[in-house]
Design goal:
By secondary structure, the chain is α/β, with parallel strands linked by helices. The chain has a single domain, classed as Rossmann fold (3-Layer(aba) Sandwich). Helix content is 26%, strand content 36%. The chain has helices at residues 25-28, 31-44, 59-70, 126-137, 156-159, and strands at 9-12, 20-23, 52-56, 75-80, 88-95, 98-105, 114-122, 141-151, 165-171. It catalyses: AMP + diphosphate = 5-phospho-alpha-D-ribose 1-diphosphate + adenine. One of its GO terms (biological process) is adenine salvage. It is an enzyme of class 2 (transferase). It is found in: Cytoplasm. One of its GO terms (cellular component) is cytoplasm.
Length: 174
Amino acid sequence: MKKLEEYVKSIPDFPEKGIIFRDVTSVLQDADGLHLAIDTMQEKIKDLDYDVVVGPESRGFIFGTPIAYNNHKPFVLIRKKGKLPRETVSATYDLEYGSATIEMHKDSIKPGQKVLIVDDLIATGGTTEAMIRLIESLGGEVAGVVVLIELAGLKGRERISRYRLESAICYEGK
């Protein structure tokens, strides 16, 4: 059986020169790779006590839903601004060139619930930090974060250092 890292395709100079893009779609397109990714992420948090799984659009949905399903937990969506139909709470965060706003339903997290955040990647930690703000604004407690890929050179772990972060694959660079 291949190692999880072998399913990730690395694309040099995308989206710009000097960047190595870590392509998660190659993991998803292989049944064994997808299975190994979910199993590895679950193994990383097997000792974690949590009530609900949260994942951001769109790859957080892909990895978070099977983890929620396998552990009989509810799954909560975090989406881009304007995509959810009921009353929401929102958080805005900075991107390299501009800003973005994410939202979740106001009734999706109950005060005191322990929340696991699941995503495909952590880079600078901006999106993860915004998700944490949303969860805590509703009275939730972030039990931990699990991602498929961590780009350690971008220091996202440092940005959310108060929280447990587990990554299935860690690349030292950017």
